[in-house]
Amino acid sequence: MSQDQTHEYRGYRLVAKPAENGAKCWAWRDGVPVHKLTGCDVPDAIQMARKEIDSALGVAAREGEAGDKAYTRALEAILPELSTGQLKMLQAHYRAPEHIMTATELAKAAGYSNYSGANLQYGNLGKALHEHHPVDLPVRRNGTLIYTCALADSPDLAPTATEDDSHWRWRMLPSLAFALRALGLVEQ
Questions:
Q1: pLDDT at 75 over 50
Q2: Alpha helices in 14-60 (DSSP H)
Q3: Could you tell me the superkingdom of the organism this chain comes from (predicted)?
Q4: CB 3.0 to 4.6 Å from 132: which of 48, 74, 121, 166, for a disulfide?
């Protein structure tokens, strides 16, 4: 029998396990079970719990005027924590044609030796931003959120060259571009 899976999410501890006819996930807050959700499997139950928490917290949209202001506040809040490489990636991404870059191009802009460093740092940046401005994010098969999607989406919805992450094209979200301009981090 498989073990419980435990994840932290927006101040909640999610505990999921297989159950008869699917899986169950409990969302605990301050030692008290607040939500109990059912899914077809453990990752689905975790995703259902995240959606329930997001709904209870009033998770905002990524785009539009409200998204622009929220992204500006969130970016301003995390600005002191950004590494030089993360800031360089944001600025290069903004300056790229149509705000589109691959992970390899982002790595080069930040001075990382390969795309793995860029993926890690951009994902960490997306997670930090997401903690200040929660938005609906896609979930991997293993139940983890794809935090880079708090910063960008993919215009292709598929890798451009191979299944290799280095060739995935990321398009910066318009609300993030707005925030960079509003905070004077890029030239208009």
A1: yes
A2: 42-57
A3: Bacteria
A4: 74
